[in-house]
Write a structure and sequence with these properties.
heterodimer; A: four-stranded antiparallel beta sheet; B: mainly beta; five-stranded antiparallel beta sheet
Amino acid sequence: DAGVTQSPTHLIKTRGQQVTLRCSPKSGHDTVSWYQQALGQGPQFIFQYYEEEERQRGNFPDRFSGHQFPNYSSELNVNALLLGDSALYLCASSFTGLGNTEAFFGQGTRLTVV
Amino acid sequence: AQSVTQLGSHVSVSEGALVLLRCNYSSSVPPYLFWYVQYPNQGLQLLLKYTSAATLVKGINGFEAEFKKSETSFHLTKPSAHMSDAAEYFCAVTPVGGADGLTFGKGTHLIIQP
């Protein structure tokens, strides 16, 4: 079992551009959550996807959007990138029957906006 | 709204000494609580969790934590620190049922002195 995999591992984008990050959940998991971790801070919840719909959302602007596919994989899209969007983006997967009691995190995607 | 406070952004202990990392939560009802560890340039690894069962929880790598409702605390301890314990530690909370996103503290950087 490969666990939670994220791609790419590193990304450099220019301010104003758009970016797409990808996440494949752990085998058997059907729920994907995305977090933003700024340097020196704890992760902050962006949103959660279940059954291809956004189930819950944190305090992030509409520039942040997502998608979940029938195979449970997910994408995070960020439009009109700002310098402040530079962070480590973490994906976590879980089985909805267990909720976050068994959430597994990927290694993250390091996004740098210049 | 739930919140987590981790006292001490940096904690330094000698190898072999007791490790104590503090976490206090704010919630209208006792939530589910977690401790995660993050090594440099890595994702988050679950150390242990409290989900309304035993108040003393044992986790991986010799760590344990005790849920104290009266003190709204969930401090992490390890009797004898090892050099490999040097990392960033995050306390997190989610409502009972665990369907919501996790709310993390700002983290404590654990330094092990030889």
